[in-house]
Known about the structure:
- This protein is an alpha+beta fold.
- It has helices spanning 3-8, 24-35, 46-51, 56-59, 75-84, 86-92, 99-107, 117-136, 147-153, 156-165, 180-190, 254-265, 320-323, 329-346, 388-402; strands at 15-19, 42-45, 65-68, 141-143, 173-177, 194-199, 209-213, 219-229, 240-251, 269-273, 278-280, 283-292, 295-304, 316-319, 352-359, 366-372, 411-412.
- The protein folds into 3 domains: 1-145 and 383-413, no CATH class; 155-169 and 277-372, 2-Layer Sandwich (D-amino Acid Aminotransferase, Chain A, domain 1); 173-273, no CATH class.
- It is built from 15 helices and 17 strands.
- Helix 2 links the parallel strand 1 and strand 2 (42-45).
- Helix 5 (75-84) packs across helix 8, helix 6 (86-92) crosses helix 8 and helix 8 (117-136) runs antiparallel to helix 9 (147-153).
- The longest helix has 20 residues, at 117-136.
Amino acid sequence: xxxxxxxxxxxxxxxxxxxxxxxxxxxxxxxxxxxxxxxxxxxxxxxxxxxxxxxxxxxxxxxxxxxxxxxxxxxxxxxxxxxxxxxxxxxxxxxxxxxxxxxxxxxxxxxxxxxxxxxxxxxxxxxxxxxxxxxxxxxxxxxxxxxxxxxxxxxxxxxxxxxxxxxxxxxxxxxxxxxxxxxxxxxxxxxxxxxxxxxxxxxxxxxxxxxxxxxxxxxxxxxxxxxxxxxxxxxxxxxxxxxxxxxxxxxxxxxxxxxxxxxxxxxxxxxxxxxxxxxxxxxxxxxxxxxxxxxxxxxxxxxxxxxxxxxxxxxxxxxxxxxxxxxxxxxxxxxxxxxxxxxxxxxxxxxxxxxxxxxxxxxxxxxxxxxxxxxxxxxxxxxxxxxxxxxxxxxxxxxxxxxxxxxxxxxxx
Length: 413
């Protein structure tokens, strides 16, 4: 059914969104559904799922189109996910925050603090497993993003390995480090002196460090992480506490860098080769490429004078149509092929994802840096006159009407 016909015929009001309701992302989803003629969706909060006060098998209606949204931007939900992941962190030996400390944090939150992202991920996995079980027992419905795919996209090391098996272009990966000592040994072993360090399960540039050294005397770490001492609780490296900031900091003292890496290492650091980015207007740039129903749709370039291009760091954004005038056509064709292949072969049951794509300085090569389960948030970027959310729902509702379970928006159970 064409988009024109869908505009004339109101869509069935059967959407359900699992989310933190009072966030800009959810407001955009509601707005997109309204533009398509659908009723406001049923909003199901992560807090209620975590508390056990809601069971999806009882609240999802037959024929519903179910969407999982990002679980961020809600402090109490974050703390509950961290609490849920305590046993997982204890078993593997990563930094762990007890429920008692979490209760103290709940009374005195500090904006931007990196608390326990690895433990949070264990909790997120537990919740995604719970969601899978409940959806399997719900009436027949259309699922837009599959929980196991979401979990994989949130795990940088494992996701990197999965795409490596498909022989897709990525930065060279050196595994996990947990301390500055391990990082120094890695540099000596691999003879690679320009590295990106990423919290294994972080998002939105949380805990990212661009590190370069001559291996002996010169050390330079560029990061959005602020170091602080003492406070309500000790972090994974004694009294050092970590905070995300919009201000980019450059540390050139090895002792400070060691303290930073030791503190971040307790949360597990995924280490990649630092590939020089292409440059435009005197700024580095990379791409956010959104794939919907196995086809590249929306895209944007993110421009920055620092190694971090994330838009929340007040970096500049350029519409993908503009950047495509600069990137050679062959390079763009290869980028499209890589992203679409990743979705169709690794995530065939999930309708959409956002890819962070690096372009080298010659603009002849590219590499997939990350896959973002909720990377479709490109406000104001349109494809054929539609926002990302509009295109996603048009496809999902079409899946429902045609009852074609082979489409990525999987019909469950």
